Every structure is written in structure tokens, then in C-alpha cells.
Task: structure prediction
Amino acid sequence: MRTSIFTAALLVACAVGACSSSAPSPTPAAPAAPGAAAPIPTTAGTVETKTFHSDALGVDKKVVVYLPAGYAAAPAKHYPVYYYLHGLGGDETNWLAGGKLDARADQLGLQAIVVMPDGDDSFYTDSPTPIDYDECMKSGAGLFFPQREHKATCVRAPRYETYITKDLVGWVDATYRTLATREGRGIAGLSMGGYGALMLGLRHKDEFAAAASHSGVVALLYAGPHPYVAGQVKLVDDPKGYGRAAGNIGEWIASRFGANIEDFRARDPAALVGKLEPGQLALYLDCGTEDDFKLNDSASYVHDLLTARHIEHAFFLGPGAHNFGFWGPRLPMSLAFMREHVAAAQ
Result:
């Protein structure tokens, strides 16, 4: 199991550009997006970058917001909100720079607000490991990537689950004309953000109507086999195994979730699926069959778990690696999925 644990640990080191394969994957033969195809709009949406204060983190954070075409001209109209989370090593700009989210949303004629927050290296969880803010600001100490521009990444408390589900959602609803209900919200992400989207969606079903993962860490404790074989899955049962098998990377994973295996299970999408009832949360999963970290195997595992519980969900495996060569063409699919399962603008 040593090799499998190392693979599971290594996947979290995935910076959006640094640990994906260099060659873009071919555009997958995607199934038709749900709902009728929308015409290409004659006007485009707008993008703005804002800064707001997070009480949970104790710092100000940047957030990129896509406002749909016609937002400014319809002051009485309220819109659904889709939260799109980045991967490890990324920031709030990645969905625009790598995925061209604004252009793809325009092509869909999307009538929704899309919010892209900065999640740092957090796994979007409230970590039990404290951080020395002053030392972090001096040297980057306490970060997974201390060599980055650390002053934008240091926080006073690593409470990222609370930051997203309370601070960010509250600020967005207070700042924009949103449908400020569970039915009006969806959450999605890629890689670490795909994990975060499913974990937060499953833990906060009272806040989100839909969750989508592109190449996400959807089975946090999956240890094999590779390739996936139904009925033969092995799960990590000792969080210390991450550190022993993968050194600093494993220690980072363990530090995000704690020393108790139950702390891992409480935030493992695959485990949380066992508590999900049909109709509680709309779910979308995809992954490339050439994923650099074999996340297609754990995606297949979660797909089978959902199927066994008779929980309807969208699932796609197709050609592609762990990069925007796969995520970019799939992005319209998750946006269309959100449009289908989250309340429409009113």
C-alpha cells in the first residue's frame, strides 16, 4: 500500500500548471450538455476583482466575479451563484487564465454570477494546525509553497471551510443581486478545488443545491487498486501513513485534516456519500483517463458508490490528463449542469 499512499499524497501537490502533463489532452467526446443549447449572446458578461475581509481567516482576500450579460441593465433581477474553486498552487485568477471561464459562460448565454475565490493551499477545510501569521509574512513559514508570493497567502487562522461557506457566501449575497437561498447556489472546482466542492457541498447541503468536480480528489482515502476494480478497493486507515510514505507532502495532507482517521472520514467525499439520500444534492463528476495522479480510479469508485445508493449524478471519463487541456472543454458541461440543477435567474 506504500506506493498507493504515495500516489494519493502526491496528487495534492498539483499546482495548476506545475504538475500537469505538458501536452494538452484532446478534446473529449462529451455528452450533450443538459438543457437546451443557449444562443451566443450579443453582449458579454463582465469580470471584476474585489477584496473583502474574512473573519474566519483574519485577513482580506481577493475574489474574481463574473457578472452575466445584462446584469447592470436589470436592477430588479436576481441571479443564481456558482462558486468555482481552484487547485493547489492556483489562485482566484486560474479559471479565467486557464479555463477562459468568462468566454465559455458567454457562449452558453449563462445568466448566473460565477464567484472565483482565493483558496490558497488549504484544501478548503478548517485545519487544526495553527499558523504563525507574523512568521508567515516574513518568510512564508507554514505554507505548502513558501517560495510563492506568501504575503497574499498568509492567514491568521486556517479556517477555510468557514471562510467559503459563511464569510464568502455572506459577502456575495450582501454585495450582488443573488438568489440568496440553497436553491440558488452551486459549487464546483478542479483537482483540490474539485475535492473542496464535493466536500463542502456534501457537508453543507443546506447551502448548495449542486456540486461538481473536475478531476477532483473525490476519495480522500483511496489507496487502490490502480486501475480500479470494483469490489477490491483498499482505503487508507492510518493518517500517519501519508507522512511516512510521502515525507513533506504527506505531512501537509495530514496537517490539513488532523491526526485522527475520523477527521479524514468526516471530510472525505467518498465517505460522505454514504450519508447522502437521493435528491439531496445534484452531483457531477469527471476525470481524464490519463490523469497524472490516477484520480480516474477514485472517481470510478465514487461513481459506483453513488450508483449503489441509487443517487442520480452526472459522470464522465474520457481522454485527458490533469490539466486545462481536459478541464477547459469540460467546463461548459459543469456550467450547464449548474444551470440545470440550480434555480434560474428571477
About this structure: The beta strands are 46-54, 59-67, 81-85, 113-117, 185-190, 210-214, 222-224, 234-235, 282-288, 313-318.
